[in-house]
Prior knowledge:
The complex is a heterodimer of chains A (577) and B (256). By secondary structure, chain A is an all-alpha fold.
Amino acid sequence: MSRTAAIHPLRLLLQVNLRQLLRRFQSTAVQSPLWVIMVVICTGGYLALSFWLFYRGLRFLETFPGLGALLTERLLFILFAFLFILLLLSSLVISYSNLFRNRETAFLVTLPISRETIFQWKFIESAFLASWAFVFLIAPLLAAYGLMRGVSWHFYVLTILLVGMFVVIPSVLGSWFAVVLARYLDRRSFQVSCVLIGLTLLSVVAFWPQPEPLTEDMLEVRVLAILDQMLMQTRFAQFPLLPSYWLSSSVLHWAEGAFATAGFFALVLLSNVLLFGFLCLTYTGHFFYDAASAVQSRNSVFGHWIFGRRHKPSSSSPWPAKGGLEKVIGWLPWLEPDLAALIVKDIRIFWRDTTQWGQTLVLFGLLAAYIINLRHFSTQLTNAFWVNAVAFLNLGACSLNLATLTTRFVFPQFSLEGKRVWILGLAPLGLVRAVKTKFTLAFSASLIVTLGLILLSCRMLRLDFTRLSYFAVAITIMTFSLNGLAVGLGAIYPNFREENPSKIVSGFGGTFCLIVSFLYIVFSVAVLAYGSPWVASGARSVSVTLLCMGSFLGLSFLVGWVPFYWGLKKVANFEQT
Amino acid sequence: MIELVQLVKRFGDLTAVNELSLTVGRGEFFAVLGPNAAGKTTTIKILSGLIKPSSGQARIAGFDVQTQPMEARRRMAYVPDFPFLYDKLTPAEFLRFTGQLFRMDEAAIVKGSHELVARFNLEAYLKKSIEGLSHGTRQRVAIVSALLHDPEVIILDEPMVGLDPHHARVLKDILKEKTRLGMTVFISTHQLSVAEEMADRIGIIHHGRLVALGNKEELRRQSGVDGALESVFLALTMAEANLLSDHTHAPTSKPQ
């Protein structure tokens, strides 16, 4: 066999994966042009809208006499500091799954590719996956900042280079954390640790800030004191060892024309990128292999856990006794056994997939932390307009959170059954009843959370019973509609070939579901607020209120019931063929 | 060509491979049999470098798969039961990619692929996207890519799964031809007929231990059953299971 001058395996891997990516785009463009148009419009819409909002926001800050520049500067420091943390977490999670839960990695380990090269490739892939959204998010902000400051073209070039360098550091740290965690923690411990850390952070966010109680009179005379307090509390973003500090400083100084100082911070960033990059690309491969082997060598994710051992069957019978969940579901007398079995199965799968409940917990936990913090401000919200505005914004935030979760987790439910459709399809249960049950379960579970949050929000804002009931009914209808939409579209646009729910969601149906959910929420909150009897200083006319409520109900029916109904029809047809 | 020396692999409390020692010579067709969860796949994963052993050594062509992984992998090929292929590539592109990883030039890749592709009837699929291929066709592509660089050792985990009888026959023929030319075949299978027909020697693994080793006649003698391999296999694994149930801490048995 003749051998050739070797092409470096990393180059081969880059070539192959770029070709894959290109073909994926091409096939998507050919197979789903509507999806591509929808994504392009939404992306363009986001960029234009966020650019406009950032630009207006920065202009507004600039109008603060004597403080505009300081506030803008601090805003950028805080933004980059939080993005650094988010990028670090995102990189950690993506690196973990990319290095240790990836079939390509296992394939490459058996080939004559060094461990260092495998790690290099997976690091590059993870860094790209973790950071593209970050760049997409901050691009309009930096463009708006540049426009506001009237900078030259080279500001944008430098900013692109700086951001490109900046993302390397959290990516390296994230991949290192992933390797260390994989080496010493099993998957379950890793996931639970992430959730516990998240919950701790949420608790800190919920209970740490203790603003000084202020009256409106004090607000008018103590603006400077408040600003001073705010600047003191956000000083952490200017910690000189944070990479986000070097990035922000370089960007800000370059915009001001202080090129030498900007260059200094750019060089600090570059030197750290080179150091971390070098260490990552040369020495981590060996540790990666140890960690990968350790991940593959764990007996059971429950094996080392005390509760896992406690529930091991007795030696006399290998058959496990009914669990607590089965007993609880069994207490519901109206539930037929086959539906009960389906519900138990769905709850178990949800519970055992920490990704699902972890994301749910983080999203709603953040919202809960914010709502709990409302107690500090509710006494200051003496103006009825702001009380109502906050209450409606809470309704919108709660619904948006729900929409992301219904799209991410409820939409792919039917597609995921596709691979196992013989179980449900051949059982006397029937697919239609199965889909209805999934809807009921998703609706009931999400209603407990959304209704709870809205009631908490109303309580924190000290709303009266009438308004509390108004918001409670509104969130119940919206929860129904968003779940109906996700279940219905999931059945209308199934993807039986894909087993990864995130890939199912990224298709046309999932994207469509997210966009419709978003538009529905915007419209609903707008008409509910406009038609509400409490927003205007004078009472709205009854006809306007009725029109708004009618529009809300009509749209909710259209968005929730119609797709659900068509989805059921499609499932019934599918079952008959 | 393949040496396993006192190989042990523990998953927490479970010992999946228990002091396994084995040597497979050059040009030998070796089949490893065993019930589910016997430790066959774990042994193969250690051999292919996917996991590290808890103790002991695994060597391919004299190279330790842990301390000299590149040397070992250049001389071997591994076909898992569900092989990974890049979905958006065509089989031709995938074969070129794997050939290049083994430092083959374009002429060698084309020449090497030509016969294998023809024998596995893959010509019609060469320019089609892999994602559209059936499981059996994907399996054939994976087998061709493994054989392409003419490895000294090939390790196959349930390679017949998904192959139709014709292509299963083709694979058997090719493997037999290659062993005559010096290639070592290490195959794990539940299809006893494959082992019976093809293997020079058969190893039976049960509870992570090699409970029997030898050619068909030697296995018959060891089991005391004079019948088909199925009867021999059942006798050996059932006897081992009974032994284990009698003695909770059964001593490690060595192959005769």
